[in-house]
Amino acid sequence: MTSVAYKGRAALVAGGLGFIGSNLAIRLVGLGADVTVVDASIPGHGANAFNLDPVRDQVRIVGADLRDGERMDVLVRGQEVVFSLAGQVSHLDSMADPLADLGLNYASQLSLLEACRRSNPHARVIFAGSRQQYGRPQYLPVDESHPLTPIDVNGINKTAAERAFLLYHEVYGMATCALRLTNTYGPRMQMRHPRQGFASWFVRLALEGREIELFGGGVALRDFNYVGDVVDAFLACGADDRALGEVFNLGHARPVSLREFTEILLDLAGGGSSRDVPFPPERASIDVGNVYADFSKIREALGWSPRVDLREGLALTVEYYRAHYKHFW
Ligand SMILES: NC(=O)c1ccc[n+]([C@@H]2O[C@H](COP(=O)([O-])OP(=O)(O)OC[C@H]3O[C@@H](n4cnc5c(N)ncnc54)[C@H](O)[C@@H]3O)[C@@H](O)[C@H]2O)c1
C-alpha cells in the first residue's frame, strides 16, 4: 500500500540532510516520489551532504531555513506530502541556549505550517515529536494519554510544536499529524559529538576501540527504533487518512537497558570497553530514567510495528560506519 502511494507524488523533506530525514528521502526516491530536500545545515547538527550520496542526482536539495517564510511559500507549493524532520535533537543544548531551541523546535515548525496554510493548505504535513515530551514517566509503558510534563526546554518546544500541528488540523482543516519518536539509531546519524544522544556516540567509541562511560551504570531502559522502522512510520502517516489529526507513539516491544545496548554493540564492533560512572550533574537534572512507549495506537490504526531487532539494527549500523566513517568523524 505504502509503496504504491508515493509513486509520482511530490514530497518535501525538511531536515533532509540530517539523520532521519536523509534516510526518509532515500526511501522516497526508491518508491518513485519526486523528492525535494530543504535543510539549513545548522552547525553542530546532523546535516551531512554525504547522507544523500546514494540519490544525489535524484533529489533537489535546497539550502533554506524553515523560518524564512517567503522561501518556504515557494518550496511547499505543489508538494503533496511535507515531512518535518528539521529540528534540534539535543536536550543539553536546549538547556544551554533555550531561545535557540525555541527557534529551531517551535518557530521553525510554526513557520512551516504557516507557509502550508498560505500556499498549499491541502498538503499533508507530518511532525517529528519526541518521547521527551512526557518527561519522567508516571507509568510504563507511556501511552499517548500520559500527561505531557517535559523536564527540559526541548520537550517543551516539541510539545508546543506538536500542539500547533494539531491546531492547524482542528482550526484550518489541514492534513496534519504527529509522531513521538523514541531513541532512533542507524546509518547517517552524526557522531562528531555526544550531545545529540548517546547512540551514535557509543557506536563511534566502539568502532574506535575506546571506552564507553555508562552514566549511572547504564540501568535505564529504552525502546530503541532502527531508522528504517521510523521511516516506515512516516511513510504510513503520509499515505493513510486515518493518521490525520492524530498523535502516535513509536516504540519497540522489547525495552533494553543502556548496558545491554552497549554489550551488543561492543560484541558487534569487536573492540572497545565500558565503565560505570556517576551521572554528570547537568545530565542528571534532565534525565528521565526508564522510559518506553506503548505503540499499540499506531499498530492498530496504521499497521505499523518495528520490524528490526536491536542486534540486527546495530549490525547494519556498525557495517555502515565501518564503510563510511571518513564522512562522519
Ligand atoms: N534522532 C532521534 O533519536 C530523535 C528522537 C526523537 C525525536 N527526534 C526528532 O526528529 C527530527 C530529526 O532528528 P535527526 O536525528 O534526524 O536530527 P539531525 O540533526 O540529524 O537532522 C535535523 C536536520 O534539520 C536541519 N534543521 C534544523 N533546523 C532547521 C531549520 N529551521 N530549517 C531548515 N533545516 C533545519 C538540520 O540542519 C539537520 O540537518 C528532529 O526534530 C528531532 O528532534 C529525533
Describe the structure in your own words.
The strands form 4 sheets. This protein has a 7-stranded parallel β-sheet with strand order 3-2-1-4-5-6-11, sandwiched between helices. A two-stranded parallel sheet has the order 7-10. A two-stranded parallel sheet has the order 8-13. The chain starts with a helix and ends in a 5-residue tail after the last helix. It has helices spanning 2-5, 19-30, 69-76, 91-96, 98-119, 153-172, 198-207, 227-239, 258-269, 281-284, 296-302, 310-324, and strands at 10-14, 34-39, 59-63, 81-84, 124-130, 175-181, 184-185, 211-215, 221-222, 225-226, 247-249, 256-257, 273-277. The protein has a single domain (2-190, 224-251, 292-309), classed as 3-Layer(aba) Sandwich (Rossmann fold), CATH 3.40.50. The model has no long low-confidence stretch (mean pLDDT 96). The longest helix is centred in the N-terminal third of the chain and has 22 residues, at 98-119. By secondary structure, it is α/β, with parallel strands linked by helices. Helices cover 40% and strands 17% of the residues.
